[in-house]
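User: Predict the structure for this protein chain, please.
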Amino acid sequence: MFDHIGINVHDVPAAKAFYTVLLAPLGYTCNFSLPEHQVYAFGRLGKPQFWLTPGRDETRHSAYCHIAFSATDRAQVDAFHAAGLKAGGKCNGPPGVRPQYHRWYYGAFITDLDGHNLECVVHWPPVLLYMMSWPAIAGYVGEVPLLGGVLTEGIIAGAIWQYSGWFPGFR
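Assistant: Here is the predicted structure, written as structure tokens:
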């Protein structure tokens, strides 16, 4: 839905240092900068997606906001949280399952230097993440010439069906 987002911060150099450490486990780097204007952006594959700019009022910060970053697995969520603490953020919720959202919601929360609530989340169950990885599929199927064909699609569809709650035995 969103192409990019920006927040105003009180101390741009400190925020840049904080987010450089925080976003590294997710593969984001500072890939755009206008140092003369104190503007920096982070992203993947050369696309600036998360922008830091100086505040426009005398307090130089935005109202507090909540930003959730996507992870590909639970290890990335854990690494995001550890990196946030290392960079000087405060724990606003340790890594873990949040069943109040849904049964596989695994997230962690950090409060940044300006008080923004930052989250990292993955929505898939670990077994399904494992099943969707090509080495796991190849190891599970063995040497089958149809890898990537109907047989593999059937394994993934079966895993989704079993672990999505459609099958009563796996709730």
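Strands lie at 5-9, 29-34, 39-44, 47-54, 66-70, 90-97, 106-111, 117-122.
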